[in-house]
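Tutorial handout. Part one gives the primary structure; part two gives the three-dimensional structure as tokens.
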Amino acid sequence: MKQILNYQVQEVNQDQYWDTYYKEFMQDFPEELTFIREGLLTKEQMDKRKNLLKMTSNISHHFILKDGDKAIALFRGEQKDIDVYYLRHGVVKNEYRKQGILSECLNKAIEFCKELGFVQITCCFVLSNNNILSQMIKKDFYLTSIECHAEYGQIGWLSHYLNEDLKRAFFFRCGMVEFSKKLLDNSEGNVKKFNKILNGF
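Part two.
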């Protein structure tokens, strides 16, 4: 991925990503009260955390969108589970919003995850951020849970399903009974038992 809309995409490492965020984006969010997890850990916990990071071989990406030399947006994602990709962080400069940058980045992320074989994409957002929620809903993301997060406060978790039967399973869990043959075949016999109970057998 070299370009999104008319903007250059630069892949960077984690340190470069956060350095850019704190120098060029942090001042745009003066009223947010967040905590940095790493800063709350003891030295021993930090050392162990570094070892955990070395042991994982997850896919991860850090992107900076640039208008010439100016950083205008940041996007970061990583493999959360074998077939689950986590859109972990994203921000667009105020003056570059409402140009479709987030929408196009989501399109690219969904396309990328499909190509690699991921079957689910997750992300979280601060519940007061209605703009993000509306953008994600347009891209077929569903609210899967709400959490009181130690670092960020009240957040919502969203999921986008790249497998139709997995999406049907999610709908079923939400009370929208929409079965498929694959759901029936992979229910470990429980659907047939449930059907017998419903029919009084």
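Part three, for discussion. The CA atoms of residues 73 and 92 lie 4 Å apart. The longest strand covers residues 70-81.
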